[in-house]
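User: Round two. Same drill as before: sequence, then structure, for each protein.

Assistant: Same drill it is. First protein:
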Amino acid sequence: MGCQRVLNKFKTENGQALYGACAVYTHMIFTVVDTETTGLNPSKHEIIEVAFISYIVDGEGNEYVLNKLEQKIKPEAIHLASEKALEINGYSKEKWKDAVEFSAVLPKLEKVFAESDFLIGQNLIFDMRFLAKMCERSGIDEIKFPPYVDTKALADVLKEKGVLKRTRMDYLCEHYNVTWEGRAHTALADCERTIKVFEKLQDEVPEYDLYTFEEPYTGY
């Protein structure tokens, strides 16, 4: 991907560069995140799978995988699940027989978020709101999220210009001829799809913003 290409595209609200030349930094860490859920409503539905891939980029722009996780989460209210959502993410009792409680994976998420300069995801506020709600249900202090880049925000820019017809991940993978290992709509495979799509999108979008949990991208 190249550290220079990533860092120089981030900007603050007033248009000033958020990060300067890559050489100023000894390294940078970013993490791609995805969740699979039992529906679309964080107040009713729950996360049943979470994954992340963390990358470290050195001062010369070399990129390495630093950490990787995929974990199935034991559902607590599967009777409230959307049948369509379960069909999409491939849920079954057998596949989830070794799933863990959300509280068991939370420390790993908190650690990787604390170490990351920023996150990358497709409509990531969806995942972040589910993670926050899962913390609330577990009686845990709200998780702290670093700033994030939304691949959908980049895709929306290109859609407005007529370059893309749609902005869903499946379409973007098809448009950019992205290939990946595993089954689409499983958390780790979607992380891999997201980073590959991000690499394609940033070649076409001259600049883009960082968003936060408090001030998310809302163009959806």
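Second protein:
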Amino acid sequence: MKDGAHRILLVEDNPGDVRLIKESLRMYELEYVLTHCENVDDAIRAVNAYGVNGVGVPDLILLDYNLPRGDAGDILAAAAKNPALAGVPKAVVTSSVAPKDMERSFQLGAHCFINKPPELDALLTEVGSKVAAMLRGETVPTSPGAPPSDGSDSETRPDGLTAKQS
């Protein structure tokens, strides 16, 4: 991982889920600076500003799928138009299990689709472990047993994470 705090853009409208995501990051001892948006409009403004006039680019973008005034797909589409965000991993963290939501997210540039388990400990572990892996530059499966999102040049480790080969 890099030295210093990771910059994370979190787009989540539920204050309880924001607290849980922060706790999952603390569990994995991740140092981070969080930029938080609660709706699609604010998130698109943030995404469009990255890389302009020295605005620092985040190390990771975490998106809830269903949001006020749109969904994660709207933000992913805006991020795809910003060349400064081309190398930034993007993950959808959601309770949605709809295959169409997952498919649309990947089509629009998501690297990972993380389902929020209903149990607290499982949620903290699922989110924290996958975020930590993404910040290390690893590819992670979208759900237990699923292939990595890029499907190439990777190996599955004993802890269930998938590491990219270089």
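The first strand starts at residue 6 and ends at 11.

User: Perfect.
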